[in-house]
Amino acid sequence: MVIVSFVNMKGGVGKTTLVVNIADFLVKRHSKKVLIIDVDPQFNATQCLLNGDEYIRYVDNCNITIIDVFNYTKAAMVSVTRGVKSIPPLTYDSIKPLETERGFDLIPGRLDLFRFEMAPGQGTEHKLKNYLNYLKENSEYDICIIDCPPTPSVWMTSAIIASDYYLIPTKPEPISMIGLDLLDGIIKERKENYGCSCKCAGLVLTMVERRTRVYKKATDYLSRSEKWSPYLYKPILLKRASVATGQLNGKFIMDIDDSHLKLQFSGIVQEFLKRVEVS
After folding, report:
1. What is the CATH number of domain 2-275?
2. Are 278 and 46 in contact (CB under 8 A)?
3. pTM for the complete prediction?
4. Which among 31, 30, 34 has a CA at the least distance from the CA of 271?
5. Which end of the chain, N or C, is less surrounded by CB atoms within 10 Å?
C-alpha cells in the first residue's frame, strides 16, 4: 500500500476535489483498491461522500471516524443530537473504514478533531502511521490518500510522518505561488524532526483558466524554476462550475458530460500513478 498526503498551506485550491476524484478514477478506470483518510477538521472530503443527514446518523451510531485513529483515552466528544458523550479507544483491528457507494473506502473526518488535544510526549502524532502500518499488513489496499488541513498543524504533521509521498494541488495565482516555498520549508522541517522520508509526488495546477495572464505567468514561473519544474504535472484540472456544483450534489468528474475535462483529469491520474510508482 502506497500512502500519499495531499497538502497545501492555502484553502480553496481544489485539494479535496483532487482527492475524491483521483480516488474515483483509480477505482473505476484502474481497478485499484483505495482508501481515503480525512484528517482535515473541516472534513470536506467526507461531505463529498455523505450528506448532512447521513453524516449525523453515521456519527450518532458511533461509527468509525478519524477520532478513533488518534484516540488514546476516553475522549469527550459532542454529538449533534445527543450532547457530550465519551468515546473509548479502539484497537486497530476494530477501526473498519466505511465502504462508500463510489467503490473506495473512507475514514470520515470530524469537526471535533479541533477539540481533541494532543499533548507533547504522548506519541499521538504517530498514531496515524501506526494504524496505516497495521493496514499494510492486514488489508489489500493499493493506495491510501490522506486529505490534509490547509494549516501546518499536528494533523498535517501526522499525515507527513505516515506518508510515502505528498502531492501539492495549487491554483495558478500569485498568492499560491508564494506559498509553495513556505510549504516546502515546513515539510522539510517535519521530515528532519521526525526522520521520515516522504517524497514529493508532484505539483498539480487546479481550477485553471488557460487563457488568462495569471495562468501563463504561473506556468512560466514553474517551468523555469529549478526547484518546481521537475514536479509540475503537464495535465491540469480545468476550472468548471459543474465540478463545484457537482460535489455539493454527490456528483464526481466521472459523472460530468465533459470529455475534455475527463481527458485532462485522466492524464493527471496516469501521471500520479507513475510518480508514486504504482503500476
Report:
1. 3.40.50.300
2. no
3. 0.90
4. 30
5. C
